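Readers of this paper often ask what the protein records in our data store actually look like. Such a record has a labelled line for the sequence and another for the backbone structure tokens. Nothing more is needed to write down the fold, since each code stands for a local backbone conformation. The remainder of this section carries one protein's record, kept here as part of the documentation.
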Amino acid sequence: MLFTEWDWDTALAVRYEEGMEEGLEKGIEKGIEKGIEKGMEKGITQTKEETARNALALGLSVEETHAITGLGMEAINRLKQEQ
């Protein structure tokens, strides 16, 4: 193919589409990673809250429950009030 036969508009359109597909794939990958990360964080928090509820139900103090779960005192006090 001679240089004069090169269709720049077509070449740019093809490269644009390739770039869009590549960007979309990377965006989806990052979204999935963030979703998994958020889900794990939420699961850990829910497990800690469940453990705190159980500890409080057994009669442990707010301080003891904090030491066991690592949850903040405010969160534990809120759970205690829900009992």
